[in-house]
Every structure is written in structure tokens, then in C-alpha cells.
């Protein structure tokens, strides 16, 4: 038989690090993805919170086309006008004064870690190297970022733990306080955990952590790679604390390029004071093509009407998901998250539920703690949200039926 894109085993020639669904897409339009046979799927995962403006967004397409015909790449040893423009857009709209551009989220976290350590080094305290992270967090797949997050299944087999990474328990502020000491450089957290199952810190907790950092000269790093850029209904999730829990350093990526690989490490001028010429770099990071797309993307994402739309659609989805939880208590245990970063904790296996959703032509993401995540494009319409709930209801029915059948089988 000829190789097809729907074969259960995708390819012998790709490193087998993903358990891929036997499904491939040829084109996208807004919240829809289409296979080569023209089958439409409602996309409520957006490439894991990346295509925040939907697929084939006219402004992003135009930005790529225009720049592709002019200039793709020069080097960071020259000025890059679009990079300066994107840095201004991001710093004008956040706590930050400066930006460093990367090609991915993990690289943005790497830059954040280096910036924090170099800050203490510049202050004459080179012993302050420890980065405190939390269980359930995810910061990427490089050697440093897997140890920063500390997820046991992601570090297994990759050698001894890197020194300088300490793990705290999510939500345990007393425990955190006890861990901060003379070698602490920074506290690193996602204001709303993504992969970990959409667990959100409260504003009160973030304020307390900010205070702890101020008292101890510790830097506060937010990973808003997934929860940032409009996903929670504010431009950044930390804004929900209304200025009382701003970070010193923040990593962003995912939605920043809307599907083009771009990340950024943002920092206050003070926190970045150790990062002088030669201290860091990237060949591709911030190149003209990536920055042209980044500018177009952020110009859309900062629009107040888009953020209001996110809050409206999120409110609708949350209310409807609570209804599903009431109607399918054997399937849906809990609804979590913030805005359009929604976690649905399940009683039945999440991988199976994702398959039921795909059978109904709905795409959703997995997550830790047996959750599935809804991460739709921020442009998802209310009609599409209604459709998604209908498809989730069918998926709940399928999961319930399967569980009932298995129970009957076990009893027989
Ligand atoms: C996706 C993600 C990362 C890693 O980003 P990559 O671009 O895959 O390196 C880091 N932190 C969070 C919160 C993420 O969601």
C-alpha cells in the first residue's frame, strides 16, 4: 500500500519523540483546518496556543509576503528596523524596558535564566545562581529548561540534575519562603500553567511572591509563553494583579509570531544590567523576516476589542463547560484555567478523550493531571464556541459510553 498521511505509523525517518495522531492538514482558515481530502476540523488547540489569530490571517500573510520579497536575514551585528519596532511595541505595553529576540520559547527562558544570574554577578553576588521553579510547570525541552521545570518524566535519562535549579511546590508559599536563601537568583513561574493542566496562581499569591522577591533581592521571572499575548483576556496574565505583581523578566513566544517561530525575553533595564555586548546572542533571533511577522502579530493582539472578545468567549465557554461537568460527572471532574487557556480535568483517560474529539472533528490539546486543554484561536467566534461545546458534548457521550462498557466488561 502507498504511504498515506493517515497511516497509523507516520514515518521511519523522523525521530520518534512524538506520539502523533494519524492526521495531516493541508490548509487552514481562521479556526478551521482542512485535510487534503477537504475534511474540516474545528481547531481548539491552535498549534498549542500559537496561531492565536487563526490560520491564514490576512495581515500576517501580507507581512510575510512583503518581507519575503525584500530581505530575510542580515545579522544582529546590524540594526534591524523591524526588531526595534517590535521591541518598542512590547516594552510600551509591558513592565519591560528591553527585549532580546529568540526563535523559540525555550530559548527565551534560557535568556531569562542567564539574565537573572548575570544581574547578581554584576551586583557582586556571583553565588546567587539558583532558579526556583514549581512542580507541574513547563519551560521547554533544552537541558536547562527541563531542569528548571523539573518534570521527572522529561529529565529521565538525560544525565545528572543541573546545579542551580531548585524545585518548590505549586501554591505552597510557606515552602517557597523557606527555599529562598543567599544563593537564590530568581523565582520562575507561569502565572497560569499550560502543560501542567491549566493551573492558575491567584493574584493574591502572585502579589505575595512579588513581595518575597522584593524583600530578598530575588528576581521574579514569568513564563508567559503560553498564557501571554491575550490568551487570558488581558495582554499578559500578570496584568490581572493590576501592577502589584509585575515581573523583572518575562519570556514570551508562541502567539508572538502567530505560527512563525519567534520568542522574546523581556526585562527591566535594571534586571538586564549584566547583559552587555558579548554576553548573549543568536544567529537567527530577531531576524527581519521573523520581526516583520512579530510586528504584524502584536499590532493585532494588543487591540482592546480582541481582548474584550477573548473575555466574552471565555465566559461563554466556562459557563457551558460547567454545564457539561454537571451532565457528565463520570467524565468531567473540573474546569480550570483562565480566559482561553482552559483545562478540563477528566475522569476518563485524556488521550482517549482527544481521540473522541477528533472523531467529532474537534481538535483539542492534552495536558498534565489528566486534563485536556482548550486553546482556541483568540478570534474564535461565539458561533464556533457553541459548535465546540456541541462537539465536546458528543465526545463526553462517547467517553461515558466507553467507560460504561468497560465497567460492564470488568463486572462480567
Ligand atoms: C511552549 C512553552 C515553552 C517552550 O516553548 P518552545 O517554543 O517549544 O521552546 C515554554 N514555556 C511554556 C509555558 C510553554 O507553553
Description:
- With 412 residues, the protein is an alpha/beta fold.
- The protein folds into 2 domains: 27-43 and 304-411, Aspartate Aminotransferase, domain 1; 58-301, Aspartate Aminotransferase, domain 2.
- The chain is 38% helix and 16% strand.
- It contains 12 helices and 15 strands.
- The chain has helices at 46-49, 58-68, 81-92, 105-122, 143-149, 152-155, 173-179, 203-216, 288-301, 304-327, 350-359, 382-411, and strands at residues 27-29, 32-34, 40-43, 98-102, 130-134, 165-168, 184-189, 219-223, 249-252, 263-267, 332-338, 341-346, 362-363, 365-367, 371-374.
- Strands 4-10-9-8-7-5-6 form a 7-stranded mixed sheet, with helices on both faces. Strands 1-2-3-13 form a 4-stranded mixed sheet. Strands 11-12-15-14 form a 4-stranded antiparallel sheet, covered by helices on one side.
- The radius of gyration is 22 Å and the shape is globular.
- The mean pLDDT is 96.
- The structure holds pyridoxal-5'-phosphate.
- The site of pyridoxal-5'-phosphate has 14 residues, from helix 4.
- Pyridoxal-5'-phosphate is lined by residues 104-106, 109, 138-140, 190, 194, 223, 225-226, 253-254.
Amino acid at each position: 500500500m502507498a504511504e498515506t498521511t493517515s497511516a497509523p505509523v507516520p514515518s521511519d525517518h523522523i525521530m520518534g519523540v512524538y506520539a502523533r495522531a494519524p492526521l495531516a492538514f493541508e490548509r487552514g482558515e481562521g479556526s478551521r483546518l482542512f485535510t487534503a481530502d477537504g475534511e474540516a476540523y474545528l481547531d481548539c488547540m491552535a498549534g498549542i496556543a500559537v496561531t492565536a489569530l487563526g490560520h491564514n490571517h490576512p495581515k500576517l500573510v501580507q507581512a510575510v509576503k512583503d518581507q519575503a520579497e525584500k530581505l530575510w536575514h542580515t545579522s544582529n551585528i546590524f540594526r534591524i528596523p523591524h526588531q526595534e519596532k517590535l521591541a518598542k511595541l512590547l516594552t510600551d505595553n509591558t513592565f519591560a524596558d528591553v527585549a532580546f529576540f529568540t526563535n523559540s520559547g525555550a530559548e527565551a527562558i534560557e535568556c531569562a535564566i542567564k539574565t537573572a544570574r548575570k544581574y547578581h554577578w554584576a551586583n557582586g553576588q556571583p553565588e546567587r545562581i539558583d532558579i526556583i521553579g514549581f512542580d507541574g510547570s513547563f519551560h521547554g525541552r533544552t537541558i536547562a529548561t527541563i531542569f528548571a521545570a523539573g518534570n521527572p518524566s522529561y529529565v529521565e535519562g538525560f544525565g545528572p540534575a543541573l546545579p542551580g535549579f531548585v524545585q518548590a511546590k505549586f501554591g505552597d508559599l510557606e515552602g517557597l519562603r523557606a527555599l529562598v536563601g543567599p544563593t537564590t537568583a530568581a523565582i520562575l513561574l507561569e502565572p497560569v500553567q499550560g502543560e501542567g493542566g491549566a493551573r492558575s496562581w491567584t493574584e493574591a499569591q502572585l502579589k505575595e511572591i512579588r513581595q518575597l522577591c522584593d524583600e530578598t533581592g530575588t528576581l521574579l521571572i514569568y513564563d508567559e509563553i503560553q498564557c501571554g499575548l491575550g490568551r487570558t483576556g488581558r495582554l499578559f496574565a500578570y496584568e490581572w494583579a493590576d501592577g502589584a505583581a509585575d515581573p523583572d523578566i518575562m519570556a514570551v513566544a508562541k502567539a508572538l509570531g502567530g505560527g512563525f517561530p519567534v520568542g522574546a525575553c523581556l526585562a527591566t533595564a535594571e534586571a538586564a544590567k549584566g547583559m552587555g555586548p558579548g554576553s548573549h546572542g543568536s544567529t537567527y533571533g530577531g531576524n527581519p523576516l521573523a520581526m516583520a511577522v512579530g510586528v504584524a502579530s502584536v499590532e493585532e493582539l494588543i487591540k482592546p476589542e480582541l481582548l474584550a472578545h477573548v473575555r466574552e468567549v471565555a465566559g461563554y465557554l466556562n459557563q457551558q463547560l460547567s454545564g457539561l461537568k454537571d451532565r457528565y460527572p463520570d467524565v468531567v471532574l473540573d474546569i480550570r484555567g483562565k480566559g482561553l487557556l482552559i483545562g478540563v480535568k477528566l475522569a476518563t483517560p485524556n488521550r482517549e478523550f482527544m481521540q473522541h474529539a477528533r472523531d467529532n472533528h474537534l481538535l483539542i490539546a492534552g495536558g498534565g493531571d489528566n486534563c485536556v486543554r482548550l486553546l482556541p484561536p483568540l478570534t474564535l467566534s461565539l458561533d464556533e464556541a457553541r459548535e465546540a461545546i456541541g462537539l465536546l458534548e458528543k465526545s463526553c457521550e462517547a467517553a461515558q459510553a466507553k467507560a460504561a462498557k468497560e465497567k460492564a466488561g470488568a463486572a462480567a
